[in-house]
Amino acid sequence: MSPPATTPVRRLWEEVQAGDVLPEVRMEVTLRRCVLDAAATRDFFPGHHDRDYARGQNVRDVYLNTMFFHGFFDRVGGEWAGPEAWLARRRLDMVAPVCVGDTMRTEGRVLRRYEEDGRALVDVEILVFTDKGLCTKAVLTYALRRADGTPIRFA
To answer: What domain range includes position 105?
Structure first.
């Protein structure tokens, strides 16, 4: 897995533009990661830890669950947005399973920067690919701090 940034970014709303690119993150998917994820999220559906069961579903191998991707997208977006950002919304679409042996790779970009109800918001799209193609995607909305120091409005 790509290491996290050593110094947290302080992302200001005024500095962000539509089209800005997020750093790529790569992560290898191992059986250990899938089993630990299933245990940590208490999602004991057999496809997340039992190879025979997963293959019986016509899936290549054990695969990651939805809650893993919630956390993964939050990590990728949060590292870009910085520790002061507030995740206001997350929309996730699962396209194809991510299985043991895959290496995930992200592509992310800012879709738009806008104000809504006095909040300084940005929408960020993050796509996850393996060598098989697009696997999952998300749009995250972050409330960011303004350059003038105005506190972030959460709602």
So the answer is: 13-143
